[in-house]
Amino acid sequence: MYNITHKLSKGKCMEKKRKKQSEKSYPAALTVSASDACGSSGIQADLRTFNAFGVFGCSVVTAVASPNPRLAGRVDLLPGASVAAQIEAVISGLGAVSVKSGMLGSAENVEALASAVKKYKLSLVCDPAIYSSAGSRWLDDDGVAALKQQLLPLAGWITPGIREAELLLGTEIRSIDDQIRAAAELQKQFGTPVLLKGGDAGNNAAKGNLPRITDVVCRNGELWKISSLKANVPVSASYGAGCTLSAALAASFALELSWKEAVCESRSFVMGSLVENIRIGNDLYAMYPPGNDYMNSIQLESVNLK
Predict the structure, then answer these.
(1) CB neighbours of 291 closer than 8 A, spacing ≥ 6?
(2) Which candidate in 30, 34, 165, 179 could, as Cys together with 63 as Cys, close a disulfide (CB 3.0–4.6 Å)?
């Protein structure tokens, strides 16, 4: 079933980072997402990731959220006009940048981002954050409809979790084979490369505590599994992992990495951030940019659709 294994050289991202930093123009990336008061997810996690990759981070705030890893908290949405004005400020000042979107919160905000992506031909990594880590709904039916019809077809990559994929496709994902089929169907439906994350449910929920976490990539009809060992960390330490992955992907593209380099560097970064988590108080832990290289823990394998 699996016939190709790709291993990338260690430190590829840091080589690109050093090269870009020595050039006259410093690469930039933009996060369009919610502000997380505790800093474990949302734009705070994205900006921390951008900085670790050596990319200048810009932010567009879609909502002010008051969660922590134990509490969903309240969410106050910003209007679409505010989101549009923030995007305009960044693009008119910096020009085209690599963009990552997370929690948009409303159809109005989805439409504001879609309009900007179309107008400025932005390279977008879209994390369709329909649900919070705790499972509460962040985007209503109108917002999901706008996401499907207006934004996802414009994205350069989409990075849904299992729950988002189930909602977008109207199907259940309960095994790795389901996950592979879902990634292929998402790519076919929206016409854009897909990285379907497997860490929150799906193959892991169905089969218990698997030793590896597996995502599935579908690009141009070709399917790949990308996996790493499962990090044994406190539950709170994995809060914001999805945000971090998509932000790392956007940063990698800002550094002009190939897609294989980008997905492997992103997974390596997430793995390291989990392993090297830090205590932030009250027995809560958080992901943190790693000091070591975890590329050797990542496997990228081609896979055939059954």
Answers:
(1) 276
(2) 34
